[in-house]
Amino acid sequence: YPPKLTPSSSKSSTLHKLLLNHIHKPNHLFPFNLQQQMTHLPNSWCTITVLFFIFQNFVTVCPEHGLADDDVVLQHKSMTDGYLRFSGDSEGSSFKVALFADLHFGEDAWTDWGHQQDLNSVKVMSTVLDVERPVYLGDVITANNLPIHNASLYWDQAISPTRARNIPWASLFGNHDDAPFEWPIDWFSSSGIPQILCPSANASGVDKCGFKGTTRLELMSSEIRRNPLSYTRFGPQNLWPSVSNYVHTIVSPKSEHKSPLMFMYFLDSGGGSYPEVISTIQSEWFDNKSQEAENDDVTNGYLRFASGSNGSSFKVALFADLHFGENAWSDWGPDHDLSSIKVMSTVLDVERPVYLGDVVTANNFMVQNASFIPEIVFWHIPSKAYEKVAKEVAAGRIQCAGSMFEEGVAAQDAEMGMMKLLKQRPSVKAIFVGHNHGLDWCCPYEKMWLCYARHTGYGGYGTWPRGARILEIVDEPFSLKSWIRMENGTLHSEVVLSN
């Protein structure tokens, strides 16, 4: 951590002076109203102010009163159903995602150093925002350094580079985003920031002396209602205090319907206000949600006639002995698969075909479960499986993509079945986490990949160069690959995660 600045220092920031100003005024307690003081802040803060008020009218949720699953409706035409569509419609169209991890906005917010780190973080994000739809992968702010209730002000600053470019995004929580405020020792020294004036013992109608943090629910509610470009969603109430649990579906640019190309799952791995775990009920939610997604068109086991008139008919085509994948390594095999598709196309004026066995010739396959819709999963704190992988790397038993192994894995407090569940799902291609600022590797594990993002923000520990992990999903033929893009624009550590 850098040295703390004293109130008499010539380097004291405008925000620092503003804090002191309010501290010395009687009857002004935290959380004070920063909005009334925005005209006194530097230009970068004025920009944030404008954006803050522009989006105040988009009030669509009220999580403080309780929400059931899927009760949040985002008022934006491209985000009302959780489907994300490629921007192009040609073969080989790509869909890119930038992972911004561990931004830590608001760290040492009372010093010039803290304010400058936030500006530096904005610059890092700006260098990589020629890609689509960023994902904020936790620790967006350092709440334990924020002496104000309105931590959403700093959250708003963190998402401003994305919003200014009119790019949609999604976010989930890390362990610092709603951590309790930690009093700096310097505040209690004769040369440090004076203690806050508390109300007198006989004062009435005022809050008690103390700092009230901003909860996960408040942060997410603020992001969603002020930003129509946000894809962030509330999870079902029975998962709370775990909040950021939701799924988005990527569909093909050529699909007239909502045919899934890939599923993106977001999970809240805790920390801050509660233990660093993914709970058993979260694992169950993921299992149920993934099965629902794969069977989206068959919700209750009932098939209904398309017409309601007398004499309506219901047709079924029986496709038998297709044997796709036979001699898949030769030209003969793929040509016969195309011929089979043509046969099926000539009879698909009937309803709901039934595939009557031997759809594929599995004894000719050298890969497993190619028919599953691919899935990727995001959360913040790595599972204990990351520790196992790190030991395998140290022993030289596996090779990974990534240039940095400069610290140990700081894993979750406990495993509650999520990794066991993911290992049993061959459709899961990769897991992405943040949390460890010195790690950015991708390693194979149980037919999937375990990957770190890259430390993006200038807040938080470590002096490693900043950057972001980029994901690219390509349609026809499907592929998922990833690489690291650094703040200086260089690329490294590209890896194919699925094809």
Automatic annotation (TrEMBL):
**InterPro entries recorded:** Metallo-depent_PP-like (IPR029052)
Q: Which CDD domains would you find in this protein's record?
A: MPP_Dcr2
CC terms in the record's Gene Ontology section:
cytoplasm
Highest rank taxon of the organism: Eukaryota
> Any idea which GO molecular function terms this record carries?
hydrolase activity, acting on ester bonds
Can you name this protein?
Inactive purple acid phosphatase 16
